[in-house]
Amino acid sequence: MEFKRKNKTQLLSKIATNDRHGENSPYFDGWKAYDNNPFHPTQNPNGVIQMGLAENKLCFDLIKKWIMENPDASICTAGGVDKFKDVAIFQDYHGLKEFREAIAKFMGRVGGNKVIFDANRIVMSSGATGANETIMFCLADPGDTFLVPSPYYPEFARDLRWRTGLEIVPVDCKSSNNFRITRAAMEDAYEKAQKWNLNVKGIIIANPSNPLGTTLDIATMRSLVAFVNEKNIHLVCDEIYAATVFDSPRFVSVAEVIQDMDCCNRDLIHIVYSLSKDMGIPGFRVGIVYSFNDDVMLCARKMSSFGLVSSQTQYLLASMLSDDGFVGNFLRESSKRLAKRHYVFTKGLEQVGISCLTSNAGLFFWMDMRPLLKEQSFEGEIELWRVILNEVKLNVSPGSSFQCFEPGWFRVCFANMDDETVEVALNRIRAFVLDRENQESNRSKLCWRKKHVRLSSSSTRLYDETIMSPCMISPHSPLVRAKT
Amino acid sequence: MEFTRKNRQLLSRIATNDRHGENSPYFDGWKAYDSSPFHPIHNPDGVIQMGLAENPLSFDLIEKWIRENPDASICTAEGLDKFKHIAIYQDYHGLREFREAVAKFMGRVGGNRVTFDPNSIVMSGGATGANETVIFCLADPGDAFLVPSPYYAGFARDLRWRTGVEIVPVHCKSSNNFRITRAALEEAYEKAQRSNINIKGVIITNPSNPLGTVLDKETLRSIVSFVTDKNIHLVSDEIYAATVFSSPRFISVAEVMQDMDCNRDLIHIVYSLSKDMGFPGFRVGIVYSFNDDVTNCARKMSSFGLVSSQTQFLLASMLSDDEFVGNFLRESSKRLAKRHHVFTKGLEEVGISTIKSNAGLFFWMDMRQLLKEQTTKAETELWRVIINKVKLNVSPGSSFQCSEPGWFRVCFANMDDKTVEVALDRIREFVLQGKEETKLEADKSQAQAQRWRKQNLRLSFSSSRLYDESLMSPHMISPHSPIPHSPLVRART
């Protein structure tokens, strides 16, 4: 082209040309492996099974039944089309009143009816993705920092940082106490940030946790609230998995905890919610920002213009979620099915000596593969991950992609497949584990014999080829990309 | 609230500045309407909403199509088996059928002169989200975009608020029907350079909001040349493309580029179904860039504002029905043309002219002759009278950064025929009254002038009488003019 082209990258913004969208990570290989060779029970029984996507496909039958019985809930049925015009033209960023009321009621039920959520505080966003970004835009300036307990949802790197210009400082949680978020760990992270001259504006937690699948207990919640009050920083609680709790202890919203804490500055407390996980409708992009700070609520509402929920969808859900009978039944049944699925997997793994973190929520479990690592390092974890991906053909997510402090943990999603696929996946894992243990056992014996026999002869031979297995080659540093 | 002062330090700069544009005094128009909305029976003296560019004129066609196509919904008996697959679908590429249908629709709206590639279709949260996304891709905080004025009031928020980018207006004048001239672009560009402002591009709206005019080929070519010469971007917001109701036809920048030597990496289109189809509630925004890097980046950003898969599914079906689309576009244009004609003719009869327009959901009304003086202050004063006495919520030109006072944007598509009559009657009455008053004032002034002449004869006797009370007529005393704050605008459309 005859026109002198400036370097393409100068044409675009810094945001457009940096990597903070997170998609250039080597972990993308998992997705590629799946996309190239997706499992199908009959057409591709040797394909890769998708276990890296936290989707909830277990209760669509209940929703479909409700829709059949409630044609008025749609603006496209004979029963509802007379509403089409009013709904299609409705773009008020306050959202349909009935929608807000239904959401507030739903959130209350999900929280065990211990809190009443105010419908006038419900602010829309485009999924939790949009909600998290919006909250950051309201609370912090470019260069400011949020503390995030690890392991955490990988896409926080994009949602909290990319267009906002914020930074994340992880609060490292350890398996020795089941990855609890301790006051000490928070103080530690805070001090570290201060030393690096980072301005900490808040802490963001996911409760229930992704990837752990655990709920925060009241003591931890109170400790978090106390911590942010003392430091006068914000607390953002992403409660997107609230209704995926399938076992005790019950879910406790931060909204419930602050009710009993007089000393709490409610202006610091904000909730992010969504229907993507609890209802299994991520395509509908229903995100909610619920702040106890009026200024934040007003600001987030203005920003919601950039990502409102489609009025067609608002209308449908307003009807569905205000049907108390349906909601009660759905929540109960969903929990039951998640519990069962979770049990099948965790029991199946237990049988081959693989343990998982005890969990009671989420669409995944946190699997402990440390015994199978060839070495207790992130390199060891990546090696194991590549084997699971390419040989066992399961797309699971390695702990390092969640910034986990310790290598050897994997998140495994269980709610996005049917029962037959569950069986296939379990069988593959079981076969792999047994095989790996045998291999390790043989290798150790072999290495030990070789080591001990040659020690006296020559040190150069210590580095026998059999010891130079591929697992010794370091992968790139664990930059993360995961879709959910 | 005891934490208020602390609160301001607690929040971000974005959260505590005014760049969202909603603190503007023009909000009074909305308040007046909200406090007393017109209803033909319940509140016949209420304020008629003429500040909202909505298009409900052709819903009957859509409703008919929906009744005849139950498969298009995932909530009907016919479509329910798709529910699961659609509800779970969150891929930011969007449903293939949706992208194909939108690309086809855009092609038709452009008169089938261009073929749009479905793989370049990127979703966003309405045009609001699309404009913000494009700016995030193209410019850094502190950079600026040139925007020909008068322009859509929401640009102040969409282009600037969270992006930190600035707007430099390119003032267009009524003397040449507000055309965007190369000279005006160059002037604005030079001025910005002199002030060390880094211009990253130009953003135009074609058809124009608030003018309701389409850009001719020559102007489009001139703008494309300009950006190519300066190596800056051109963003063309074509949200009103299918509201064109008379000639000349709509020409997309995509069409113009086909016959030009230009750098395609600089050209980007923003589109939406909010105006053309009347679906603002569905939040269907589209970013269509000819620059692959921008397409890829905007697609990643679309996670912050995807179109609901339920809505994608419905529209994929609707917009791929060629016959329906053809009929809809024809009928919609007809109805807009008729409505436009009724209003503009009605105004003509009382001597109010409007800029000659052929598109949009509004017309650009010339009220300069009714201004007490040719100033923004007087325009605002006239505006307050129109809102509070005539009870019409119209939008004053200064809210669109128009450089000349006296112009008003009046929306005509968002009401039924009866309300049109009422609105027209009110305007006609007001204008005629105004003329009468002006005539009375003129007579009064004449009489006063005569008296003054007589008084002058007395000058030699006493100077204190120069200031005769009769001279101090009310219109000489400056009213308590509501000095508007700098026209940061809050508008909903």
From TrEMBL, chain A:
Domain spans labelled Aminotransferase class I/classII large: 49-429
InterPro entries tied to this protein: Aminotransferase_I/II_large (IPR004839), Ethylene_sulfur-biosynth (IPR050478), NHTrfase_class1_PyrdxlP-BS (IPR004838), PyrdxlP-dep_Trfase (IPR015424), PyrdxlP-dep_Trfase_major (IPR015421), PyrdxlP-dep_Trfase_small (IPR015422)
Keyword Iron-sulfur: no
GO MF assignments: 1-aminocyclopropane-1-carboxylate synthase activity; pyridoxal phosphate binding; transaminase activity
A matching Pfam family: Aminotran_1_2
Domain of life assignment: Eukaryota
SUPFAM superfamilies cross-referenced by the UniProt entry: PLP-dependent transferases
PROSITE patterns, per the entry: AA_TRANSFER_CLASS_1
Entry keywords, A to Z: Pyridoxal phosphate
Record's keyword annotation contains Transit peptide: no
Family: Belongs to the class-I pyridoxal-phosphate-dependent aminotransferase family.
Protein name: Aminotransferase class I/classII large domain-containing protein
Organism per entry: Gossypium darwinii
From TrEMBL, chain B:
Record's keyword annotation contains Ribonucleoprotein: no
UniProt xrefs under InterPro entries: Aminotransferase_I/II_large (IPR004839), Ethylene_sulfur-biosynth (IPR050478), NHTrfase_class1_PyrdxlP-BS (IPR004838), PyrdxlP-dep_Trfase (IPR015424), PyrdxlP-dep_Trfase_major (IPR015421), PyrdxlP-dep_Trfase_small (IPR015422)
Record's keyword annotation contains DNA-binding: no
PANTHER family to which the protein is assigned, alphabetical: 1-AMINOCYCLOPROPANE-1-CARBOXYLATE SYNTHASE-LIKE PROTEIN 1, BIFUNCTIONAL ASPARTATE AMINOTRANSFERASE AND GLUTAMATE/ASPARTATE-PREPHENATE AMINOTRANSFERASE-RELATED
Residue intervals of the Aminotransferase class I/classII large domain: 48-427
Superkingdom of source: Eukaryota
Gene Ontology molecular function terms on file: 1-aminocyclopropane-1-carboxylate synthase activity; pyridoxal phosphate binding; transaminase activity
Cross-referenced PROSITE patterns: AA_TRANSFER_CLASS_1
Source lineage: Eukaryota, Viridiplantae, Streptophyta, Embryophyta, Tracheophyta
Annotated SUPFAM superfamilies: PLP-dependent transferases
Keywords: Pyridoxal phosphate
Organism listed in the record: Gossypium barbadense (Sea Island cotton)
Family per similarity comment: Belongs to the class-I pyridoxal-phosphate-dependent aminotransferase family.
Name of the featured protein: Aminotransferase class I/classII large domain-containing protein
